[in-house]
Amino acid sequence: MRVAVVGATGAVGSTILRVMRERSFPAGEIVPFASERSAGRKIHFGDDRLEVVALSDEAIKGFDVALFSAGSGVSEEWAPRFAEAGAVVVDNSSFWRMHEAVPLVVSEVNPEALDGHRGLVANPNCSTMQMVVALKPILDVAGIERLVVSTYQSVSGTGQRAVEELHDQALAVLEAKELPPPVVYPHQIAFNAVPQVESFKESDDYTTEERKMMAETRKILATDAIGISTTCVRIPVYTGHSESINVQTRDELSPEECRELLASAPGVIVIDDPASGLYPLAIDAAGQDAVLVGRVRRDPSHERCLNLWVVGDNLRKGAATNAVQLAELLNVRGLLRSAGTG
Fold first, then answer.
1. Backbone phi, psi, residue 110, to 5°
2. 82: left (phi over 0), alpha (psi -120 to 50) or beta
3. pLDDT on residue 86
4. Which residues of the chain have pLDDT under 70?
5. Which domains occur in the chain, in start order?
6. Is 258 assigned a catalytic role?
7. 126 an active-site residue?
8. Which of 67, 93, 142, 266 is 20–30 Å from 302 (CA)?
9. Active-site hit among 117, 232, 241, 258
10. DSSP string computed for 197-259
11. What was the pLDDT predicted at 338?
């Protein structure tokens, strides 16, 4: 395969390249794309050095698959162009996710959705991604009626500037220096919890991140029957999103049955011995592709409700790894270069 990685110099783009190398992705050629100012820059890929290329109509020809992580504006403009040139695009931005003709896919949850692609495939939001990996086995066995979700999201989900902002603020606090004003976030993120991830639209009490989780979950799980309420919070952690999920099932499912079910599910690791201090932590999830689940327990207020604690690496499974897994599935299922335009 000839593979394009668009947004290759960003946090997710560089992680895509790392994951491809780790998984021995079957690419004959990989071309990293980025902005004009990064063109000509060399990126390490194992023992090779790949030269960054700027996007142009000529440069995008002849690819089998294009992995996008360059923001909604770039995806809106260039993803259809890659598709028209013959590539299948796997896009990490939010732009295409809710388009009816574009499948929104998590490799362990709904891989069959790839079959109907028209040249574009969307990668879900990172917080949605790890949640549905843990929920799909429960949905299949016991059904799900309602979800109440609170997220605790790391700053790397916003990008490198947010990581630097947390670092600079934390250093200033620890050294008793004047705190630099927040730029990326509306408030200080160091030693704080900010109950706003992304933005509020006019006349909406829910953030765009919260709306994404609700809408994307229903699309991926192919049901509008699940009631979903979300609260998304940004916390001073570099990598790894954590989620408290209250699941109301259709059929009764005991905590013991749930642990056993999740332990055998693809892409899930159960860590659940709280009395011994064993439960998923963001620092443990960082660098892993699996979704970690623990603190599985009965909700004492409802006989068909369970509480779960779910943690995942937002840069890997939450973005880069799933994109690479989808490209692998497209290849294995014979779905590359068989699409029309986006």
1. -140, 55
2. alpha
3. 95
4. 337-342
5. 2-123+319-332 (3.40.50.720), 128-314 (3.30.360.10)
6. no
7. yes
8. 266
9. 241
10. SS-BPTT-SSBHHHHHHHHHHHHHTT-S--EEEEEEEE-S-SS-EEEEEEEEESS---HHHHH
11. 43
Residue 233's identity, in one-letter code, is V
Which listed residue (126, 232, 258, 305) is catalytic? 126
pLDDT at 339: 38
Look at residue 340 in the predicted model and tell me its pLDDT.
Answer: 40
Its pTM stands at 0.94
Residue 271: the pLDDT is 98
Local structure of 97: helix, strand or coil: coil
Bridge pairing between strands 65-68 and 2-6: parallel
Amino acid in the structure at residue 235: I
CA–CA dist 34, 11 (Å, integer): 12
Residues 6 or more apart whose Cβ sits within 8 Å of residue 96: 75, 79, 102, 120, 122, 342
Handedness of CA 311, 312, 313, 319 (dihedral sign): negative
Angle at the Cα of 142 (from 208 to 310), degrees rounded to 5?
A: 45
